[in-house]
């Protein structure tokens, strides 16, 4: 009855951490109708949740429609060419992911990327700030939509997007050479890969690469001007690398010639005897079992894999959950609101 209780305990902890805790949202600048926005006329307490899987509230969780209302007043005054920061916060950062900062000057019809963070975004629960430069070619506007978008690494395949209203001065450009904001996991035929940080296909000229465990999106994705599909940018470039004013495509991808060491084949059978033909193993006879000197591919494993026992790398506090009675575990599931897991646990323990 108590077998594999650690695995069930892991499921409980995972669902509690990912499924019940609040997610993340942009805290500063405060989005339209965010509880922290002093201009909010109808505070939206759903901001920490992702966009609808079908994209019905894309973009901006639908709050871009309030741009011309009293709730759509600018919460920050920015100047083109200067540096600023955005702050995100919440209770479930899903082991990070990839984020983008974008601007819209047409009421949310299009968004142009001004900075991307690939991996480690967000980097922890609570509040975390990220610095970026407002490009010098940013157009001036009394009201512009500043968007933070996020693709989580662990958990359901989701897209988060919050939009704040800012005023911008001192600019005269158009950001026309900047890529469009990337969108996925909203019913548009494009999705991200779980357990890997999204390798944004066209992150723009200003990007922080903070992960080497990246993967391009899957499906029918819009990769922006000049890009035809995943992989155009290449893999992550290591923690904290910042590229500014450079193309997101590697300058030179020509492989270098590296000598390949010779492969040494292990000798089979007895050592050779001078004057006699070399040893030739007899092929197995169909329908007869293999002899000990003819191991199957399944038997040829590395010692590390062969000696691995599931659970032997778990910490002591985690293995201690084996002493938890199954009935107690089911009660905990009910208290956490994980009702759908109760029959699953019961069937698993009865097997």
Automatic annotation (TrEMBL):
This is Lytic polysaccharide monooxygenase. Residues 226-238 have a biased composition (Gly residues). Residues 194-299 are annotated as: Disordered. The keyword Signal applies. Residues 1-22 form the signal peptide. The keyword Phosphoprotein does not apply. PANTHER family: PROTEIN, PUTATIVE (AFU_ORTHOLOGUE AFUA_6G10930)-RELATED. Residues 248-257 have a biased composition (Low complexity). Residues 258-286 have a biased composition (Pro residues). Keywords: Signal. It comes from Plectosphaerella plurivora. The lineage of its organism: Eukaryota, Fungi, Dikarya, Ascomycota, Pezizomycotina.
